[in-house]
Write a sequence for this structure.
């Protein structure tokens, strides 16, 4: 049986690093592949919703701006966070921040990030959604160990986008991200800056995720755990967020390992979606419900000027799970009036129509599947194979475009699909054109059981080796991952 620990051990030995004691040994949680919390694991006390304020993530300042680039230094370390009121919970962090911090970047201006590893285990850092050279991509086997540092260079040659960074250490990515190793990377450019969209304090990143705690307030981790039913927004349990009666831009990220969110305003007012993974849509889209799978992002504008001061408006979730546990995400409390010079233009950016995309020279079929027969150590596959870091699964020619038909052959288990290096376009979902909210640039896409999505991908970023995988991180840690070589 190939287990999470045995694969990790072989990988780290290959990298010249020792196999370290599992993180869970110090946190008191289940850790092995397919493990579930024992029946004796208690549940944390229920936290009444809307009793704590949602924080805004800290924005990092560069250590240097010399030489036409921004330099950041971050320490990856353990810390504690007050996720449950009055309780200190052990977490993994970038510079002690939970929720993770924000880096602001601009297209055409490089960013250099030096990460110092102060954990007792190896890590790597992936900038999700970015077009970067392979040495800066955070390959799962390109780890750096305890006490070591690694410098990542991000050229920022792509247009604006709400990106994020997270650990990608195979087979540890799932647990590391669950315990806090993620942050936001907001890339902007002249196209975005020249629009009158809400900015400054009215432009708010929100990471939504689920978690499970024991009776001592510790995060419980087990691979494939479907009982993570405590909903966090920016690291707090179902919080409230005070707003002015004006327009806000919310940059939403689904930071969960497995959970799908279907977000809506409880009073039935539609959300105005203006962006997806790869930046602004061509035009704003009115959506009654916004579905986000793990790793997906969407920017929405909510105009609170329609509500009188004193209004309390819930952002609800109608996604899978018990409604009494996962049905509320956060509450917006309208507490004051404010001037509002912002606007949402009818046209946000120019994107080529599907018919005008570069001609595809190759069509590929990609199959996502995993065991769903209840076995204790489920395996996950991409085109029938588990991830092998020594294997190149697909080779493409630099500068070419391809069509990828991505199919989920499971009957009950949903997946999603993420490609490193590129932003793609969704041509079809189940034989039908992409919905307007999915018609922009994407790097992560939902694939429901039995469904096929058809993608147009152009490989004109960099040559080298990159991953493609399910971004339900428990599934990728179970093996649903492969390597692409661009040459």
């Amino acid at each position: 049986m190939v287990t999470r620990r045995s694969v990790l051990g072989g990988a780290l030995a290959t990298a010249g690093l020792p196999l370290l004691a599992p993180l869970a040994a110090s946190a008191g949680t289940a850790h092995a592949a397919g493990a579930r919390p024992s029946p004796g694991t208690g549940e944390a006390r229920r936290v009444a919703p809307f009793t704590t304020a949602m924080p805004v993530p800290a924005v990092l300042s560069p250590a240097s701006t010399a030489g036409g680039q921004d330099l950041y230094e971050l320490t990856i370390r353990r810390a504690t966070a007050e996720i449950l009121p009055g309780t200190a919970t052990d977490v993994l962090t970038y510079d002690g921040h939970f929720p993770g911090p924000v880096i602001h970047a601009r297209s055409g201006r490089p960013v250099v990030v030096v990460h110092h590893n102060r954990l007792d285990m190896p890590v790597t850092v992936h900038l999700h959604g970015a077009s970067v050279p392979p040495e800066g991509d955070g390959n799962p086997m390109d780890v750096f160990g305890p006490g070591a540092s690694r410098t990542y260079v991000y050229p920022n040659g792509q247009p604006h986008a709400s990106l994020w960074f997270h650990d990608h250490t195979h087979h540890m990515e799932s647990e590391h991200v669950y315990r806090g190793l993620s942050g936001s990377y907001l890339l902007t450019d002249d196209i975005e800056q020249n629009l009158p969209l809400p900015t400054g304090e009215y432009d708010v990143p929100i990471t939504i995720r689920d978690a499970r705690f024991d009776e001592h307030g510790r995060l419980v981790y087990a691979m494939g755990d479907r009982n993570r039913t405590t909903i966090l927004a920016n690291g707090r349990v179902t919080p409230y967020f005070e707003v002015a009666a004006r327009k806000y831009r919310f940059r939403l990220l689904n930071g969960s390992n497995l959970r799908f969110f279907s977000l809506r305003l409880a009073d039935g007012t539609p959300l105005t979606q203006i962006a997806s993974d790869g930046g602004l849509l061509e035009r704003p889209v009115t959506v009654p419900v916004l579905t986000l799978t793990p790793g997906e992002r969407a920017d929405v504008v909510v105009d609170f000027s329609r509500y009188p001061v004193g209004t309390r408006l819930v952002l609800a979730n109608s996604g899978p799970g018990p409604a009494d546990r996962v049905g509320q995400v956060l509450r917006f409390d309208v507490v004051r009036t404010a001037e509002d010079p912002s606007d949402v233009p009818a046209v946000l950016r120019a994107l080529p129509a599907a018919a005008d995309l570069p001609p595809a020279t190759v069509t590929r079929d990609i199959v996502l599947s995993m065991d769903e027969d209840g076995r204790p150590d489920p395996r996950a596959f991409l085109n029938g194979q588990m991830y092998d870091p020594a294997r190149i699964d697909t080779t493409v020619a630099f500068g070419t475009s391809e069509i990828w038909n991505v199919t989920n052959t499971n009957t009950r288990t949903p997946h999603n699909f993420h490609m490193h290096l590129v932003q793609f376009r969704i041509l079809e979902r189940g034989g039908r054109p992409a919905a307007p909210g999915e018609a922009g640039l994407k790097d992560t896409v939902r694939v429901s059981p039995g469904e096929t999505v058809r993608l147009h991908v152009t490989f004109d970023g960099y040559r080298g080796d990159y991953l493609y995988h399910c971004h339900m991180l428990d599934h990728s840690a179970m093996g649903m991952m492969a390597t692409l070589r661009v040459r």
Q: What stands out?
A: The first strand starts at residue 70 and ends at 81. Confidence is low (pLDDT under 50) at residues 1-41.
